[in-house]
Amino acid sequence: MIDLQLPFEQLSKTLEQILLNYGFTEERAQRCAFLFAKADLDGVRSHGVNRFFLFLDFIKKGLVYPDKEPVALTQLGMFERWDGQEGVGNLNADFAMNRAIQLSKEFGISCVTLQNTNHWMRGGNYGWQAVEAGCIGICFTNTIPNMPAWGGSEPKIGNNPLVIAIPREKGPVVLDMAFTQFAYGKLSIARAKGEQMDYEAGFDKEGNLTKDPGTVIDNHLGLPIGLWKGSGLSMVLDLLAAVLSGGNASYEIGKSGHESAVSQVFLCFDPTKLELTDWIETKSDALIGDLKSSTTFADKSVRYPGESTLETRNRNLKNGVPISEKLWDELQNELKK
Asked: What range does the record give for the signal peptide (predicted)?
């Protein structure tokens, strides 16, 4: 597939114009489009515009409601619980993290949970949202069952992405990971290109490990990271998300056959309010300095989570955001409808 390189503003504006035809207000269309385009801007193409048409399809099927906004269920000081009303996933998550940031500025620590929300697309967006506000952010979501419990032969648990973000003047540390070896968005891109994964990505129907992305996608049998450890940790995050939000667990989400009405948790820590500023930078710099001093195999390099994001973002702002020509043509056709 040939890549075009488009100005970020052009890409975001194109998505915004399409969303206006799907019941979005101008303000919500602008923010939703920005969050989609920002994933591609930062180099996370598996969870940006590549997911846009699937998102539109969910709107058409009545699984995502563009006009619905979160409604407060519980507000107890630094803890709040909200009903996402099956609204737009990235807007709901953006709202929840912003609420967590506001509460952390008041209390030092905060926890905001969402029930009945939808796929947040690129989870890293909300980690960056936190660090850009000078806060430590932690958030996680459950998903439709798409990997087996360790030893199982059917999808019983979600890959339940986790984001941990720590502010740092020389470059924030932002971990954005799912609990399958490869995110399903990345598997979908590889399948479209006819490529195999570099490492085993999941199981076939006979329980054999496979690098074929199509097999893993069709079976929903992604390989848990860390094998039994990843399986266990993913299950615990699912339970926490369901308990803290009062919403669905992965097995309940799976009953509908669609990944909708999921549960999410957003935690925030304000270093200034908690009096951490005397050492947060020196601790971070020392740890990363030690990490970067590591010897490596062959031509390998050692990077910390999120290290290349700012570099990628600045390059794409200068040269244009890479978008496949085929996908851009599809967006133009959608715009003409």
From this structure: none
